[in-house]
Amino acid sequence: MRLGYVHTRVTDLEESRKHYVDTLGMRVVAEEPGKLFLKAWDEYDHHSVVLEEGGVGLVKLGYKCRTPDDIAAFENRIQSFGAVTERMSKGENLSVGDGIRVVLPSEHVLELYSEIDVVGTETGSLNPDPFPRHLVGVGVPRIDHTLVTCEDPATLERFFAECLDFKPSERVVTGLDRDADLIGSWMFCTNTPHDIAFIKGPNGKLHHFAYWLNDWNEIRHAGDLFAMDDVSVDVGPTRHGITRGETIYFFDPSGNRNEVFSGGYITYPDFPTITWTPDQLAKGIFYISRELNERFTTVLT
Amino acid sequence: MRLGYVHTRVTDLEESRKHYVDTLGMRVVAEEPGKLFLKAWDEYDHHSVVLEEGGVGLVKLGYKCRTPDDIAAFENRIQSFGAVTERMSKGENLSVGDGIRVVLPSEHVLELYSEIDVVGTETGSLNPDPFPRHLVGVGVPRIDHTLVTCEDPATLERFFAECLDFKPSERVVTGLDRDADLIGSWMFCTNTPHDIAFIKGPNGKLHHFAYWLNDWNEIRHAGDLFAMDDVSVDVGPTRHGITRGETIYFFDPSGNRNEVFSGGYITYPDFPTITWTPDQLAKGIFYISRELNERFTTVLT
Amino acid sequence: MRLGYVHTRVTDLEESRKHYVDTLGMRVVAEEPGKLFLKAWDEYDHHSVVLEEGGVGLVKLGYKCRTPDDIAAFENRIQSFGAVTERMSKGENLSVGDGIRVVLPSEHVLELYSEIDVVGTETGSLNPDPFPRHLVGVGVPRIDHTLVTCEDPATLERFFAECLDFKPSERVVTGLDRDADLIGSWMFCTNTPHDIAFIKGPNGKLHHFAYWLNDWNEIRHAGDLFAMDDVSVDVGPTRHGITRGETIYFFDPSGNRNEVFSGGYITYPDFPTITWTPDQLAKGIFYISRELNERFTTVLT
Amino acid sequence: MRLGYVHTRVTDLEESRKHYVDTLGMRVVAEEPGKLFLKAWDEYDHHSVVLEEGGVGLVKLGYKCRTPDDIAAFENRIQSFGAVTERMSKGENLSVGDGIRVVLPSEHVLELYSEIDVVGTETGSLNPDPFPRHLVGVGVPRIDHTLVTCEDPATLERFFAECLDFKPSERVVTGLDRDADLIGSWMFCTNTPHDIAFIKGPNGKLHHFAYWLNDWNEIRHAGDLFAMDDVSVDVGPTRHGITRGETIYFFDPSGNRNEVFSGGYITYPDFPTITWTPDQLAKGIFYISRELNERFTTVLT
């Protein structure tokens, strides 16, 4: 149904709290020793980001499914695919119900669940305002997607397609002939341009996770606050060719890459997949400059 | 899966062509005597708007489904609900395949189909630009939703929920007690705030159909072009409370109301439905002015 | 040199404080019994708005001049014109130096001064950020212009041109023939579209005074906050034909009309004055709707 | 009064025509052998850019003055300052009247004139639309400012202040002590943040000249068109700390740097000059990334 939570490691929880709360505007909904559970204002589930002290990089991703039956069906398909799953019980993750835990072919850990406490958005469900009167910092409304790296994008794409009904919106290939290799794939299970994406690289690594913003003006405003709050900016503001989105990439204090993302088109199950060839890839990534920086392609956590 | 086409009557086809092509920027993909088939630049299906000379108002709406099996399942549910359906054959609508035709409890005609010629977007599927280099007029990328009136919104809401798996994002009710009446319902089958909406009024009537725009700046730009092209503007630019969208309502030369719409939140099957009460309804409709004009609530086609 | 301050009457100082401070984001720089002195964040002079309890409408306008010599020259010309002036001493207005006070042919009171305490902007003059990190409400950066009514716009235009070197950017006339009457004039002494404007109506009345905003997105954001804070909105958001500006008109709690204004072109002393004829006046005022509401043209304070 | 024209050399007139006309949207108002005279749509004077085939870099800058008397006064002051002036006759520059030609201490050539044919804006002066219905490409409305390099910014700043009544809005200095050196100065003669700027570097060189755009959305749209039209982008879109403006730097086909610029504050003669210190200079130049690229600081024409 959607990306439900991103659980990452951070080197310093208090530094991270300043970043995710004061600058980005998330709210701490719960704390455990060495862990913060955070929620953005327009999300109604209990949390969408978990920060765990110790190191950097991804612990796991949670995708929320409609029903336990859906999860059971996914479990069957995943096992047929040959990936490892295990049952996950209510309470293993704060506020999250039963589900399954999958080790992807890319060594990332994925959790599927259908229940989590619903705490509601900050504007509520009765005659709501379009946004809270007193937003904090950037005021991100919700998380949007993640991009991870893997040694074998073709297998991971097949996994998400066959096991979880994701479809590719855009694909980067080494060429247009039949035996060309897949370098990256952007896949959706909603009507957005991507709910997850993966590009060729080391297994198990996180390139970035992204927050939604409403428009290009909010992207610039985020950039202004990043300058005021000494947030390290990687690239942007600019436009993506791939997804058409508008973006700034930046780093949390531990070095995990975040993105603020707006725009993009609508997808449907019959969306005609877009193909990018290597000669146009820089334009696909950063449409306006048509230049990739070294940092963007090599720094992973 | 989505709103596929809106088929409306217009009093003068050539006047309408100027409006939908020169001002809004759609492209004529086919013509039949007394009929124009139009497509917006970011749509890949054959057409999304059909204009038929003679009168005003809605002829029918087409919603595209994933598969013939989905349609068969919908057909069963519709018949159980007690609505009238008939089989529709490939060719009855130019470019559209087999499907079913339903007369809704609200007397609107709905067609469900899963096949239509795919002609592609104007930016294509290989290393595409984010928009065509030479947009015409407003340059609408796609249609978005419709709003129709009906005598019994509660029944129509139940129809769309039970027969077609739509869910309500927002509901206007006469009060918060159990036996309050439903005045309007905004329902989605995608992740948008609404794919169809209906409010209390005469059966069979069209309030408006809407085009997507990317942001508030494009909304103003559309308004500027409406002034230059002498398009009659009903309301806006403004913000909706309901859907959070940004909007201008305007009329085509025959008096059918159109909308340009941007913004809004993302919905999912577990979206907590929003409720509006009558005391806040003006704010729900036009958030900034909190005033309804007579024309907006009474002019239908 | 510029509009320096607007001094208005308000019926309730505490209600007004909420409006001008909490909603608009001005800061109270000084208080006297029954009076508030306010400053916007990007202004460096001591204050730009004075609110005085008791009634509604304009007490006086202050325009800041470069030097005492300029004021002396203006004084001569004003006396030659036949208008009444009196000397104004340092301290008559809090923080303001010597100058002159003029009763305009329109019965409005105008003060010219060249000295006022400089307190600096909120971002300062050393390596400044582009805006304060924690803006309040709309966060208006500065006042921009006023529009007043007068029985004889032609005389008032001549006064501002001959005595104070203002030039008309736009003029509304009853026709294009020689003996057509002037209905309204927009005049500038800076490079903006207008530093003052006047339209035919009763002498001594205020139509509105305006705050600058940076763009159309800030205009909508202001409108959103007006809805949240129950500020009465008169018209907008929309575009002006005259000045090309983007606007919302709204009322302070006492009924004085305010405006948030963005956009517009740049003027120079050789700017070719624009002429509007009555048949296009509604378009000139509200470009998108091309409709005037009764309230906009009749409510004055 | 304002920057009137920029006269630059280009290596290929036809390549340049495509850039300045098809991409930027200027109009060719006149041609001479090896020369194009161009005008943007919102300018009323005959031309604002002259392209001359043969090489790259600046030929000269024209600043328009109010009256011949003003020019005579400037001439006196310039001669007192010790700079070389010569009389310029009507016709030496197409459409331009009498004036003077100055070789600045920085070896740049500056022409002062008060008369040039007025051809009007493309929207005209009678009931005008806010922009032409059919803009070409980026659709720049007007030129805005230039930035040149010089060996001795302090002298050049003194020249513009003493001879031409410009004032500095922002200054970059080597430190805050008395004997610190001036690295760059942004100076205005209108109410904009800068009408000319200069930074330390070789004499006689052009860093860039800039076009005005209305807002951040137009900046991104320009960037999108630059990608479509294969225009080489140097930096941006981003925000400046200095001037607060929003920007993209790019190159014309000959390698002359252009800018599209929007935003910025308003200045007045009493504007409190802003000071930047070297430790914050990267933030001053590119506020969001706080990084300077080598190309930006070294490529001049």
Automatic annotation (TrEMBL), chains A, B, C, D:
Broad class of enzyme this protein falls into: oxidoreductase
Requisite cofactors: Fe(2+)
Keywords, in A-Z order: Aromatic hydrocarbons catabolism, Dioxygenase, Iron, Metal-binding, Oxidoreductase, Repeat
Domain VOC stretches: 2-115, 142-263
KW Ribosomal protein (keyword) present: no
Superkingdom, taxonomy of origin: Bacteria
Catalytic activity: catechol + O2 = (2Z,4E)-2-hydroxy-6-oxohexa-2,4-dienoate + H(+)
PROSITE patterns tied to this protein: EXTRADIOL_DIOXYGENAS, VOC
Stated family: Belongs to the extradiol ring-cleavage dioxygenase family.
Protein name: Metapyrocatechase
Source species: Streptomyces humicola
Lineage summary: Bacteria, Bacillati, Actinomycetota, Actinomycetes, Kitasatosporales
